[in-house]
Write a structure and sequence with these properties.
Blueprint lengths: L13 E5 L4 E6 L2 E6 L3 H19 L3 E7 L2 E7 L5 E4 L1 H9 L16 H10 L68 H8 L8 H13 L7 E5 L8 H16 L3 E5 L20 H6 L1 H4 L14 E2 L6 E3 L13 H14 L2 E5 L7 H9 L2 E7 L2 H17 L1 H8 L2 E5 L6 H11 L5 E5 L17 H15 L3
Parallel strand pairs: 1-4, 7-11, 7-12, 8-10, 8-11, 12-13, 13-14
Antiparallel strand pairs: 1-2, 2-3, 4-5, 5-6, 9-10
C-alpha cells in the first residue's frame, strides 16, 4: 500500500548529496557519512540502503532530500523498502511543522523487487524484521483502501429524466477533437529519480529534466523547406567555429540528421581544421564546379557525399572552405547563391560560419538567405565589442538585416574558467537589444583540436542545448 504520510515526523532530517565523481555524503540529523562507488548507480544503491536502515530503526517512514546532477529530489521511504516521490516544497513545509499532520493519500508508486534486492545486497547491516516492519512483499500498492465494514446496498431510485438545456447549433468546422494533444509523461530518466524508475518505481521527472525535455522538443522540430542560420561576428577568435559545430551537432543529434555546416569564410576558414575529415579533399570550390550536375533533376542525395565531410559522432556534414595555399578564387554573392541552392536541395538545415569580412557581396548574400542570426562572443572585451558592432552594422544595412539583428541570439562563451560574472555582465549589456542572450561555461574541449560534442562536460552540453533551443524558436 501507499506510504502513510501521517506517520512521517519532523525528525530524522535526512539529506544525500551525490557528486559527479561517484562520491556521496549522507547526513542524518547532522551526522555525515561518506560513500564511494565505482559508478553512480552503485553509489545510489549504497545511499538508499542506509536510508532503508534508518527507516527500519525508527519503525516508520522517513523523508529524505537528495541532490545530484538532475537537481533536488524529495523522497518518502518506508521500513519495508517502499519509495515514493515527494514535492520538495511540500516536504519542506511539512518538515517545518512541529508535529506532522495527516495529509491526503498520495498517488502510490509501485514498489520494485529489484530495488529491494539491490538494497539488501549493499546494506551495511541486515536488520531482523520486528513487530513494526510490514510484510516484505513487492506487490504493487492499491490506490484506495479496502472497506473494513460490509457495504449496505440500498434500493436504487430512478431520477426523473430531465430535458437538456437548449443547444446552440454550430458548424462542424468549430467542433473540437476528443483526442488529447498531450501524451503521457514518461517516467524520470535522470539522477536519483531515473535510477528509481529503472528499478520499476515509477517516479515522475524533476522540473530540471522537464525543462531539458522542452529544449529537446524545440531542437527536434522539422520545418517545411530549408532553414538557414548564420553565425556572424566581424572579429576573429569570437568562438564562431565552436558555435557552428555545437549548433549543428545538437540539431543533428536530436532532429535526425539533414544538417550541413558551411564554412563561408572567403579565406581559409577553421571549420575544416576543427572537424572530422572524410576520405577526400573536396571543398566549396568543388561544389561550385559541379553545381550544375548537383542541381540537375537526375542528381540523388548520395551524390553530395563526395563533397562534404561527415561527422561520424555528431551526425552532420561539413562543407569546407577553400584551403589551397595558392588559391586565387574570390567568393562572390553569386557563388553564395549557388552554394545555398545546392544545400537547400540536400539538407533541411544550414548553419553558416560567416568568416570575418563583412563588406563583400558574398557576406551580403549570406545575410539575404538567413532566417536566424546568431552572434557569438567570448568574455574578452574586444570580441564583445565586435559583436555589438556587427549587430549595429546589420541594423543599418536594410530592413531584412535590421530584423535579423533585432531577433538575434547572442551566445557568450567563457574564455577562461571562473568568468561567469563577466559573462553575465556582458549578457546584460546585450539583453535589451536582441531576442535572446545565453551564456555557456568554459570547456577545455573547445579550446583546441577536433571538436566532438559528446566530449564536452555535462554542464556545457546542457548549456549548448538550451542555447540551441533558443535559436530553434526563431526558425
Amino acid at each position: 500500500m501507499a506510504i502513510d504520510q501521517s506517520l512521517i515526523q519532523s525528525t530524522p532530517v535526512i539529506s544525500a548529496i551525490i557528486n559527479a565523481d561517484n562520491t556521496g555524503v549522507l547526513s542524518v540529523d547532522g551526522t555525515e557519512e561518506q560513500f564511494t562507488a565505482e559508478d553512480s548507480n552503485g553509489l545510489r544503491s549504497q545511499l538508499m540502503s542506509k536510508v532503508f536502515e534508518v527507516a527500519f530503526d525508527h519503525g516508520r517512514p522517513v523523508r529524505v532530500s537528495t541532490m545530484d546532477e538532475s537537481g533536488l529530489t524529495g523522497l518518502r521511504v518506508s521500513p519495508d523498502r517502499q519509495v515514493e516521490a515527494e514535492d520538495t516544497a511540500e516536504a519542506q513545509t511539512t518538515q517545518n511543522q512541529e508535529t506532522a499532520t495527516p495529509a491526503p493519500t498520495p498517488e502510490p508508486a509501485a514498489a520494485a523487487a529489484a530495488a529491494v534486492e539491490n538494497a539488501r545486497k549493499t546494506a551495511t547491516k541486515k536488520p531482523t524484521p520486528g513487530p513494526k516492519e510490514s510484510a516484505a512483499t513487492a506487490s504493487a500498492p492499491v490506490s484506495s483502501p479496502v472497506p473494513e465494514t460490509p457495504l449496505v446496498l440500498k434500493e436504487a431510485t430512478v431520477a426523473p429524466v430531465q430535458e437538456s438545456a437548449s443547444v446552440t447549433r454550430r458548424t462542424l468546422r468549430d467542433a473540437q477533437s476528443f483526442l488529447s494533444p498531450h501524451g503521457a509523461t514518461q517516467p524520470a530518466t535522470q539522477g536519483m529519480r531515473g535510477w528509481l524508475s529503472s528499478l520499476g518505481i515509477n517516479i515522475p521527472p524533476s522540473e530540471t529534466e522537464l525543462a531539458e525535455r522542452v529544449d529537446i522538443e524545440h531542437v527536434s522540430k522539422h520545418w517545411a523547406g530549408t532553414r538557414t542560420i548564420m553565425v556572424a561576428n566581424r572579429k576573429g577568435g569570437a568562438n564562431k567555429t565552436p558555435t557552428v559545430k555545437n549548433l549543428a551537432a545538437i540539431f543533428a543529434l536530436h532532429g535526425g540528421g539533414g544538417v550541413l555546416a558551411y564554412d563561408g569564410n572567403p579565406e581559409v576558414g577553421t571549420l575544416g581544421w576543427r572537424t572530422e575529415k572524410g576520405d577526400h579533399n573536396s571543398t566549396v570550390l568543388d561544389v561550385l564546379e559541379n553545381s550544375d550536375r548537383l542541381l540537375s533533376a537526375s542528381a540523388v542525395s548520395g551524390d553530395m557525399a563526395g563533397y562534404v565531410h561527415h561527422q561520424s559522432d555528431d551526425r552532420f556534414d561539413v562543407l569546407r572552405s577553400d584551403d589551397s595555399l595558392v588559391g586565387t578564387h574570390v567568393m562572390t554573392g553569386e557563388d553564395v547563391d549557388t552554394i545555398h541552392a545546392v544545400a537547400a536541395k540536400y539538407y533541411r538545415l544550414l548553419v553558416m560560419d560567416s568568416g570575418n569580412v563583412d563588406r563583400g557581396s558574398d557576406w551580403a548574400r549570406m545575410i539575404a538567405h538567413t532566417n536566424q542570426l546568431v552572434v557569438p562572443t567570448t568574455t574578452m572585451e574586444d570580441r564583445a565589442e565586435a559583436a555589438l558592432l556587427t549587430l549595429k552594422a546589420l541594423h543599418e544595412r536594410d530592413e531584412h538585416a535590421a530584423k535579423l539583428a533585432e531577433n538575434a541570439v547572442v551566445i557568450i562563451s567563457q574564455w577562461q574558467p571562473g568568468e561567469k560574472a563577466v559573462a553575465d555582465r556582458i549578457a546584460e549589456g546585450f539583453r535589451p537589444f536582441v531576442r535572446e542572450v545565453l551564456t555557456v561555461p568554459f570547456d577545455p574541449a573547445l579550446k583546441s583540436g577536433r571538436i566532438v560534442h559528446s566530449a564536452l562536460s555535462s554542464a556545457s552540453r546542457r548549456a549548448w542545448l538550451h542555447a540551441t533551443a533558443a535559436v530553434a524558436q526563431g526558425l
